[in-house]
Structure formats: structure tokens, C-alpha cells
Design a protein that fits this description.
- It is a single chain.
- This protein is an alpha/beta fold.
- Helices cover about 45% and strands about 25% of the residues.
Length: about 140
């Protein structure tokens, strides 16, 4: 599959999308449907890693198509980590983050999958620690 989505850890707190050229919006839509099913299967808040390191372009109509999903985030989604995005893909994601600031997700751009995993893991560790202290 040109756009894959799976759990990235056993705790089901990190969801990983992988994009491989060539891909199209049908591939993307199928991955989003699968991601929503995965999100429904866990009680956890979930960080989303989007790995663009194997693709440098977006199909035609990117802002229009991705804005539909940006307007309807799953309530369990938290931060979004975008890996290896080209400057064009970074610009599109920044436009969407600015256009939909109330969606409650923080967007970070990182260079490697290891950096994304470390940032996602740190965030969830801290949340669990604070929950333990403050109830």
C-alpha cells in the first residue's frame, strides 16, 4: 500500500502513517479510514507520526483534500509529528495548522523517525507522570 497506517508501539499511543511514491488520494482516504478504526480501538490519546521521508510530492489538490481531514480530527488524536517532509509539504502542513488552530493538535516537523518517536514517547511519559501526581 502506498499509504500505510499502523500502531507504532505496544501501548497504542503512537500511530504511524508511511507514504511511499507513488500514492494518490484514494490511498490516503483508505489509510485515514483505517486510522480512525485503530483510534476507536484504544482508550488512549494518540500521537500521530506522518512519515514523508519516502515521498517528496503531494498529489494535485493537497490543501483542499487535507483540509477536509484537518477539520474533523479524531478526538483521541493529540500531537502530530511530520517526518522528512520536503519544504513544499512543510508549507502545506503549516498552512493547514494555521487555518485550523482549534483542532487541538500540536504539529512538529522532525528530520527522522527516531526523533519523532522520541518526542512522542516523551510527551506521553510526561502526561502519565503528571496524571500519577495530580490524579
Amino acid at each position: 500500500m502506498a499509504v500505510g497506517v499502523t500502531w507504532d508501539n505496544e501501548q497504542h499511543t503512537i500511530l504511524l502513517y508511511t507514504f511511499t511514491d507513488p500514492w494518490n488520494w484514494d490511498d490516503y482516504d483508505e489509510a485515514v479510514r483505517h486510522a480512525y478504526a485503530l483510534l476507536e480501538s484504544t482508550p488512549n490519546r494518540v500521537a500521530t507520526i506522518i512519515d514523508f521521508s519516502c515521498t517528496q510530492t503531494l498529489p494535485r489538490g493537497a490543501i483542499k483534500h487535507m483540509s477536509i481531514v484537518a477539520q474533523q480530527p479524531h478526538p483521541k488524536q493529540s500531537m502530530m509529528l511530520i517526518v522528512g517532509a520536503s519544504p513544499f509539504i512543510q508549507a502545506i502542513s503549516n498552512i493547514l495548522a494555521s487555518a485550523y488552530p482549534g483542532h487541538g493538535r500540536v504539529v512538529h516537523h522532525v528530520k527522522t523517525l527516531a526523533q519523532a518517536r522520541a518526542l512522542a514517547g516523551k510527551r506521553f511519559w510526561m502526561r502519565g507522570f503528571l496524571r500519577h501526581i495530580y490524579g
